[in-house]
Amino acid sequence: MTLLESRSGGSQAVDAQQNTAAETLPLVDTSPAALAAVTAKLAETAGEYDRTGEFPWAGIQVVHDAGLLRLGIGELYGGRNVSSSEFARVFQALGEGDPSVALLTAMTVFQHVFQQQSNAAAGGIEADGGLWPAALYERLVAESLERPSLVNAIRAEPELGAPARGGLPATRVERTENGWLLNGHKGFGTGSEGLAYHAVWAATDDEDPLIGHVIVPAGTPGIEIVKTWDHLGLRATSTHDIIYTNVEVPFENFRGVPLSKAPNERGGSGGIGLSISALYLGVARAAQKFFTTFANERVPSSLGRPIATTVRIQSLAGEIEAQLVQAEEVLYGLASRIDQGDADALQRSLLAKLIITRSSITAVQTAVGALGNPGLTRNNPLERHLRDVLCSRVHPPQDDAALLIAGKRVLASYVAPAG
Questions:
Q1: What is 271-408's CATH number, 3.40.640.10, 3.40.50.10800, 3.30.930.10, 1.20.140.10?
Q2: DSSP secondary structure letters along 357-404
């Protein structure tokens, strides 16, 4: 079944009794050659989706066909463990092809990783202690084999803003005789039009409210998507507002914990969080490739030879490469150390996001500055890459938060001289 076909029938559930835990999922090829092929296919439609702002159905189908939407599904459900280094390679490749598709993929993969981590902490499927109830998650895994099944945590709100800054959601979930009733208005719901499941951050009205994510299958009555997303970059991510009005879900679809016992929502997400930085590094590499092609093919009549032969362009090309080498060394160096269990590397991942995205932005801005007017022309891919890479700044941890956390940590290490 293609994605376009599944849009009309995608809400039909696969038999919930199908147990995928005992089956091994098809292997996903993340070799350099396989990822390069995915990058090329995504790049074919990235410009058109950016221009129209429509949901990137074709790009998502490419990622699904490559099996990449299933990365992060744990061994308990037939998947495999994926290292931080492999995630970084995958998302750099996707970001180079189409960063909107890359972000949509990342949101889904993150949910699989978080389910895997929560299952491990709870002691496996039998304990049913994952973020999702086991039966519902098994259904998601089964559906993922048949068609693209996108998932995202819908958390931000118009009044609250980004939950990474702290605060309690205004979105409310109320206990009923048959389960839960969800009401609320969410903003920046990435993937809204293409989601198979919404994981909606909400709280009860108790004195010590239960807080957590309500799992809502797409197509459940009461979901309204309000098309508010008209952004500078990542225009095809369908990051619209979503309104939930009297949405009913079964009891097991909300696993809230008392606010007094809830984990801190602030901070980074460790090794998997590096994937977002890798995505934008991919955008910068795409910009570099266009710059290189342009410099070698542009022959001004006044010069009589390609501008790539001039000292100025050669120096700027070196500056771009220096920024990207710096970013890649930080990304893959820390990813490798995290994979080896280095706690210091995990702690440094907060600052890694800042370093990688700053270098990526600088590289693209350097390329645009070198080309002048052509670099800012709407039909020029470099203009799109600049808009997309600037979106890296909004992802948590944002620069000020990362610097504040790092600064406090350094200052707290001070030891007063004896005597």
A1: 1.20.140.10
A2: HHHHHHHHHHHHHHH-GGGG-TTSHHHHHHHHHHGGGGSSSPHHHHHH
Torsion of CA 389, 157, 154, 201, to 10 degrees: 140
Q: How far apart are CA 139 and CA 46, in angstroms?
A: 31
Whole-number Cα distances in Å, 260 to 207, 208, 266: 10, 7, 15
**CA separation, residue 22 to residues 67, 77, 81, 133 (Å):** 19, 7, 16, 17
pLDDT band of 219, cuts 50, 70, 90: very high
Fold of 163-261: Butyryl-CoA Dehydrogenase, subunit A; domain 2 (2.40.110)
Superfamily name and number for 22-148: Acyl-CoA dehydrogenase/oxidase, N-terminal domain (1.10.540.10)
Structure tokens at 195: 């989601």
Rounded CA separation 149/244 (Å)? 20
Q: What is the mean pLDDT of the chain?
A: 91
- Specify which of 13-22, 126-135, 340-349, 358-367 reaches the highest per-range mean pLDDT: 358-367
CB 382 within 8 A of CB 291: yes
CB 275 within 8 A of CB 91: yes
pLDDT digits (tens, 9 = 90+) for 224-240: 999 999 999 999 999 99
What residue ranges do the domains of the chain occupy? 22-148, 163-261, 271-408
Q: How far apart are CA 197 and CA 149, in angstroms?
A: 8
Q: Which two tokens stand for residue 339?
A: 């994979």
- Kindly report the pTM of this predicted structure: 0.91
pLDDT at 342: 94
β-strands 195-203, 150-154 pairing: parallel
- The b-or-e profile of 257-282 (16+ CB within 10 A means b, else e) is eebeeeeebebbbbbbbbbbbbbbbb
Cα(46)–Cα(54) distance, integer angstroms: 11
Sign of the CA dihedral 156, 92, 229, 110?
Answer: negative
Q: Is the pLDDT of residue 19 over 50?
A: no
Instruction: State whether residue 41 is helix, strand or coil.
Output: helix
**Predicted confidence (pLDDT) per residue in 348-380, tens digit:** 998 999 999 999 999 999 999 999 999 999 989
Percent of the chain with pLDDT over 70: 90
Q: What percent of the chain has pLDDT over 90?
A: 82
